[in-house]
């Protein structure tokens, strides 16, 4: 069985947002990754028409939008994002480090199925209410 050693994993640019680097690994049925954001950064509201996603918060705190709900999340929280569900977050305490898994595996790149939310500006305004 493959073992991926942290010291050997090299971050690669995100396919949809190349300014973000993440460690991404694809298997036969799922893809996984590790990534981080700094305070004030915001993964813009988006959805994945084909991917179901779980995110484990490793460090930091954020206002997390999933569907119509905004919840404060922190280290140890496990987030579930069903397919076709608009989601995003505003980083409140950084660094915000997360582990993500998605299915199906596709190419192994976490954002290959990334579609911006049509009402992203309105959702960003809602997230910006949180400090």
Task: Quickly list its features.
1 helix, two-stranded antiparallel ribbon, 131 residues, 47% strand, mainly beta, seven-stranded antiparallel β-sheet
Layout of strands and helices, then pairs:
Blueprint: E1 12-13, E2 21-26, E3 31-37, E4 46-47, E5 52-66, E6 69-74, E7 78-81, E8 87-103, E9 115-116, H1 120-127
Antiparallel strand pairs: 1-2, 2-3, 3-8, 4-9, 5-6, 5-7, 5-8
What does this structure look like?
The chain has 131 residues and is mainly beta. It contains one helix and nine strands. Strands 1, 2, 3, 5, 6, 7 and 8 form a seven-stranded antiparallel β-sheet that branches. The longest helix is centred in the last third of the chain and has 8 residues, at 120-127. The model has no long low-confidence stretch (mean pLDDT 92).
């Amino acid at each position: 069985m493959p073992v991926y050693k942290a010291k050997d994993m090299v971050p690669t640019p995100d396919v949809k947002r190349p300014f973000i680097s993440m460690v991404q690994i694809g298997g036969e049925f799922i893809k996984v990754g590790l990534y981080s954001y700094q305070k004030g950064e915001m993964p813009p509201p988006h959805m994945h028409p084909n991917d179901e996603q779980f995110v484990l918060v490793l460090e930091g705190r954020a206002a997390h939008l999933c569907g119509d709900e905004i919840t404060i999340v922190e280290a140890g929280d496990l987030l579930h994002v069903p397919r076709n569900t608009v989601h995003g977050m505003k980083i409140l305490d950084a660094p915000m480090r997360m582990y993500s898994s998605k299915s199906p595996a596709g190419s192994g790149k976490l954002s290959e199925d990334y579609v911006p939310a049509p009402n992203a500006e309105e959702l960003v305004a809602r997230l910006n209410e949180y400090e």
